[in-house]
Amino acid sequence: MNDILKIGEKEFKNRLFTGTGKFPDKHMIPKILKSSGSEMITVALRRVDFSMPEENVLEYIDKSVTLLPNTSGARDAKEAVKIARIAREAGCGDFIKIEVIHDMKYLLPDNEETVKATEILSKEGFVVLPYVMPDLITAKKLEDTGAAAVMPLGSPIGSNQGLKTKSMIEILIENISLPIIVDAGIGRPSQAAEAMEMGADAVLVNSAIANADDPESMAEAFSLAVKAGRKAYLAKIAETSSKAKASSPLTGFLHD
Amino acid sequence: MINITINSKEERLEKEMDVMTFLSKKGIKKDSVVVLINEDVIKKDDFERVMIKDGNKIEILRFVSGG
To answer: How much is the pLDDT for A53?
Structure first.
């Protein structure tokens, strides 16, 4: 069945997106990409520290994988726009994850600044994937300002709490025409499956894979969970009921 | 001597030099970095041609792991 996710001009067969953050050993990055089949991965941009040996994370990412640079470090729209432009000039392509955060305790994004950055960058031809607190009003503004998707958080980054914002994400899925990609807080494959069963278009998982004892296997587990959740969603899950509904006939018993 | 800033820190260089020479002096491989002079990204093909001059604001960035 042709179940492609189209974002911008790109088509994705795999609905698990991943991140390069937090891996103790960067050599794990190509391994998790292979075991999960993920087709898009995030990277960040930082100043070189001259006292530490430098590495280019891009060396660990196969050319066939779409790069999704994030604007992490940006505290407002202006800084996010600057990072996005540098990332594109540096050859990262048009995709950009807008991440505007100035709350250092929960790392919750600034929705207002994210909308501002989206408006500027979408006009410049970027494929904008904004990371936001799930809020219908914000999501409608993102639709209006040219975002290519909406990326609501499930719970704080790295918290592994799962879909704490579930009901708000459901509202977005029902009312927003853009792809909804749940990003942040997914801690286990069952939570990724849950997001997909709800009708999310994709999920982005980083910490839960990077922090696992065996990231390669965990990445595969997440990939399977995303596929299972998506299949279940497309197969139309049956209704729940407070009473039992017998699965064997209620007549012809072997007793009177 | 010329005065420049690198990643917001003030530094002095003995003279003007091209970006490639500057990176070599710092022990940095050109393929792993993004270089900006006064907010403009310098293309890697231009590293040997573009000169760092007095008063330049240099940013040396790289792509790192991030979620």
So the answer is: 64
CB contacts under 8 A, A 225-254 vs B, are none
> How are beta strands A202-205 and A16-19 bridged, if at all?
parallel
Question: Which residues, including other chains, have CB under 8 Å from residue A124's CB and lie 6 or more apart?
Answer: A85
Strands A16-19 and B9-13, how do they pair? unpaired
The Cα-based distances of A230 to A6, A15, A20, A71 in angstroms read 15, 9, 24, 29
| Burial of A221: CB neighbours in 10 Å, binned 0-12, 13-18, 19+ | buried
- A187 touching B (Cβ < 8 Å): no
Annotated active-site residue A116? The verdict is no
Distance of CA A17 to the CA centre of its chain: 6
Q: Coil, strand or helix: which one is B20? A: helix
Q: Which two tokens stand for residue A89?
A: 């000039």
Q: Is A20 on the interface with B (CB under 8 A)?
A: yes
d(CA A173, CA A180): 6
Q: Minimal CA–CA distance to A19: which of A1, A43, A3?
A: A43
Arithmetic mean of pLDDT, A232-256? 84
Q: How many other C-beta atoms lie within 10 A of the C-beta of residue A26?
A: 16
pLDDT tens per residue, range B15-46: 999 999 999 998 888 888 999 999 999 998 99
Classified as helix, coil or strand, A27 is coil
- Distance, in Å, from the CA atom of B51 to the CA atom of B34, rounded to the nearest integer, reads 16
pTM: 0.92
Provide ipTM, 2 decimals: 0.93
The active-site residue out of A97, A116, A141, A227 is: A97
Location of structure tokens 């990262």? A92
Separation of alpha carbons A184 and A203, rounded Å: 9
> Do residues A147 and A178 touch, judged by C-beta distance below 8 A?
yes
